[in-house]
Amino acid sequence: IREHNIDCDFERNGAIEVASSWHPENYTDELQEDFVQLRDLGHDVVWLDRDAMRSEVNSPVFTGGLWTKDSSALVDPARLAWGLKRVAQTLGVRIYEDTRAVELNDTKKKIEIKTPLAKIKANNVALATNTFKPLLRKVNKYIAPVYDYCLVTEPLTADQLASVGWRNRQGLADCSNQFHYFRLTADNRILWGGYDAIYYFGGQMDKELESRPESWAMLSRQFFTTFPQLEGVKFSHMWGAPIDTCARYSVFWGTHFDNRVAYALGYTGLGLAASRFGGEVMLDLLAKNETRATQTEFVKTKPRAFPPEPFRFIGIQATRWSLDYEDRTGKRNLWLRLLDRLGLGFDS
């Protein structure tokens, strides 16, 4: 970003994982255990009790927080993407936007990518198709498109911002399974999203699904519960989009056609930070470079495949219900304990 002068509102202010009054008490205990572990590993972390947390960001529901100072930053992802595009083009990269790839074939001499109007031939192909239907059919079973929704307020006045505090402008997220993520923008709006992750039967994806008024209404109620001092603030923008979820909730890799095609998928909403690492590993796999990363089990293994419909839909809904139950009670039910034993989810 610094080297190529990419204007993307980069702020290295750290992130706070927040415990709230609507979380079970054992969530705070687990967050404190995370603090001790990170501190012992040498990270620059601070434990915030209720008063310290509310001194940082003022909310009547906040009961504590884990402030990680050295490994988190905020960025405007659209400006970052536009900046990276500019840099790539100055380095000679040709970008063909709105060119739909419909098929991928091995012609033995080259990898052939079919588009509606032409064929592209290449020695190697790196697939970064995110939540869209993979060109490799065998990969389809590993990912599921889950829709995420968010809101952005109008710019806060000086008095409104002072009522919240937030002088250090950290990124924030709940410590629960179903979590909100929230941050200040460069012009002092609050972006507030997450919590209500929706999977549609059959992995359906459609422009219309990016609009979900019931999710926005729920997010709005939760926002004003968190920041009642901002009652009356209006939301200027709202949107939704799918993320590529996999069973281990983090990126996975693979190759095809004798290592001439590689992919990195399944970021589960964490791709902005992790895609640089994911891309580097994918290129190493294409080049057959043996690195510390490519030799790890994390890179060598894949998540468990999702079952076919209707079992995929039933399983995802059962998991959502169970995670909500744990967020309310602090207890993992039989379904979540089964997933733990199978190596599925965050604990995989």
Describe this structure in words.
The chain folds into 3 domains: 15-76 and 144-245, D-Amino Acid Oxidase, Chain A, domain 2 (2-Layer Sandwich); 96-143 and 248-300, FAD/NAD(P)-binding domain (3-Layer(bba) Sandwich); 311-342. The chain starts with 14 loop residues before the first strand and ends in a 6-residue tail after the last helix. The longest helix has 19 residues, at 311-329. The chain is of the alpha+beta class. The strands form 3 sheets. Strands 1, 2, 3, 8, 9, 10, 11, 12 and 13 form a 9-stranded mixed beta sheet that branches. The chain has a 3-stranded antiparallel beta sheet with strand order 4-5-6, with no helix packed on it. A 3-stranded mixed beta sheet has the order 7-15-14. The protein is built from 9 helices and 15 strands.
List the helices and strands and how they pair.
Layout: E1 15-20, H1 25-40, E2 45-48, H2 50-56, E3 62-68, H3 77-90, E4 103-106, E5 111-114, E6 119-122, E7 125-127, E8 144-153, H4 158-164, E9 171-174, E10 180-184, E11 190-194, E12 198-199, H5 213-226, E13 235-245, E14 252-256, E15 261-265, H6 271-287, H7 297-300, H8 311-329, H9 334-342
